[in-house]
């Protein structure tokens, strides 16, 4: 088994995680404007990505710029990994390639704890990606714990590039936001949630 084979029922049954919906998981998190260069790029990329309609186009032209902007706005104190193999526990199926990982560390050569945000790109079907993202978040939690970073929440996101849906793993409780955020009109809220998740204090 690998991350891509998990659905939410598997996450609950096989990884001993409680799964529940939340009406507004990030209520009160302030929006943050995209940097001017990234906002300008997205004005070019958004129609192109929609016209192409492929997962690759949306990942490269919409998702990557937003995640990179989050890193830049935190003065590169976080690291961003794209398409890396993240093997944590093969016996539990916690292995495979993650679309994007963000870590609260400036070290960019290899993945280090704490892994703070997991983003899973799905072509036009967010619901299908929730199980895979949830499994990757459990792997991130175990990875952090092995490095002595316990009691940390992990934020997850399943996104088509145009629509973003967030999750939060707090201990063994996986909360799924019932809200979706749209890049064309709510980019500031998307970036605000990412920054809030990456700024969450982590014990040494």
Describe the 3D structure.
This protein has 204 residues and is of the alpha+beta class. It has a single domain, classed as tt1808, chain A, CATH 3.90.1570. Helix content is 40%, strand content 23%. The chain has five helices and eight strands. Strands 1, 2, 3, 4, 5, 6, 7 and 8 form an eight-stranded mixed sheet that branches. A hairpin with a 2-residue loop joins strand 6 and strand 7. Helix 2 packs antiparallel against helix 3. The protein is globular, with a radius of gyration of 16 Å. It starts with 7 loop residues before the first helix and ends in a 5-residue tail after the last helix. The model has no long low-confidence stretch (mean pLDDT 94).
């Amino acid at each position: 088994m690998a991350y891509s084979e998990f659905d939410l029922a598997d996450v609950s049954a096989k990884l001993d995680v409680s799964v529940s919906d939340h009406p507004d998981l990030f209520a009160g998190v302030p929006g943050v404007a995209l940097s001017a260069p990234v906002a300008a790029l997205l004005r070019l990329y958004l129609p192109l990505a929609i016209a192409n309609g492929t997962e690759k186009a949306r990942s490269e032209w919409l998702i990557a710029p937003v995640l990179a902007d989050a890193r830049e706005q935190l003065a590169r104190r976080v690291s961003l990994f794209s398409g890396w193999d993240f093997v944590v526990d093969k016996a539990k199926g916690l292995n495979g390639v993650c679309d994007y990982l963000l870590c609260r560390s400036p070290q960019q050569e290899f993945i280090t704890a704490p892994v703070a945000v997991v983003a899973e790109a799905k072509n036009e079907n967010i619901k299908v990606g929730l199980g895979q993202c949830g499994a990757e978040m459990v792997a991130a939690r175990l990875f952090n714990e092995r490095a002595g970073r316990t009691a940390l929440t992990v934020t997850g996101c399943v996104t088509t590039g145009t629509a973003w849906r967030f999750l939060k793993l707090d201990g063994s409780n996986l909360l799924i936001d019932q809200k979706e955020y749209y890049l064309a009109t709510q980019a500031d809220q998307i970036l605000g949630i990412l920054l809030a998740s990456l700024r969450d204090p982590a014990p040494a």
